[in-house]
Hints:
449 residues, 65% helix, alpha+beta
Amino acid sequence: MLERISQILAVPPIFAEDERDRARLLNVLLWSIAIFAPVITLSITVIEGQPLLNLTSIIGLSVSALMLALQVLLRRGQLVLASWFASLGLLVAVTYTIYAFNGIRDTTTIVLAFVIVIAGLLLNDRLSIAFFTAATVAAVAGVYYAETLGLVTYDPDQVGIDDVVSSGATLVLIGALLAFAVRNLNDALQRARRSEAESEKANEQLEALNEELEARVASRTRALQLSADVSRRLSTILDKDELISEIVNQLQRSFDYYHVHIYLLDENGAELVLAGGTGEPAQRMLEQGHRIAVGRGLVGRAAERKLPVLVPDVSQDPGWLPNPLLPDTATEAAVPIVRGDRVLGVLDVQDDTAGRLTDEDVELLKAIVNQVAVALQNADLYEQAQRRAQQEVLLNLINQKIQDTTSVEQAVQVAVRELGRALDGSPTYVKLDPGNGRSTPQTAAETGV
């Protein structure tokens, strides 16, 4: 029950922050007058022995009804309108009370000053304060005029003009001071709001800077981690195809790039041949033998200059070569793979969001291609070593088989046969010098076509 009453008497939560205090004050004023006005007027009526329905009690009930009606306006968010009617109603009620009971006395100034203060606090406007100051002065003058004409008589003393002037001057002074206070209060409030807005803006900028720094740190940490992972993996992979596949797939997984390619420079140094890439488009390009001439497109340009090429928006670069298998490419970075002064190939990264690839990505890719260059060189050395080892094994095998023969002809036949197998069926011939000093050699054995 008490909770329900509290909800009814509370201010509705519909007002802005700068209106809440005024709404609370008006709410308290309206409920106070609505409750106490009829109680006071009815008490006076009973004490004076007058009928219950007289002018005084009717005015009290009317004022109470007006306050309740203004509560309806307040709950609909009409704070200014409700404040104006409440202030005017209070002024009328006070003026009537002065007129009906005690006239212009010392207490009159205090009560009318209360009206000015209430109006100023509710309306928070200097013009409104000026209006109610003038209205209260007019009320004092009106009551004085009625008393001097003999329309009303107050005991024990007749009011003088000095009382009117004193009361009016006091009310004007109170109104002026209140207007000055309201102006200073509003100015201070505006400064506080500006300061708060500036503080909020500074905080937002600081938070944005912190987020940017955190993102950079996270990106840098991730880049270092990836670089370490790549270095660790590359050190264990000696097969070139497996090496390239590991690099492009790990880059795409770690940074969610749209596409990653690696091109290797051919033996003539004129074209860059696709060696590996991510996804089905790369597989199709490998099947087609995709290649780019040195100097053409971003990949060719990076190889020719031996410098990274970054294009945040490929649509703005006239030298960009579109690929129908990668229709969503919006930004691209090509970083040459260089070992010493020699270009081994190009690492090409593409993304489908313009501007997403930045200088930070290029720095990361440069760190990775330095390791890739070493790994590719190690893979080449490993292949060469494997070929030499295979050749040595083959020679030892042929030598062993030759040693198992019992004639020169058998030895020659074994040598020709094994060499032909080693050369994948390529034509193989062995010619022997008869040893008699003649210049024409004699054919001992032949294999192949």
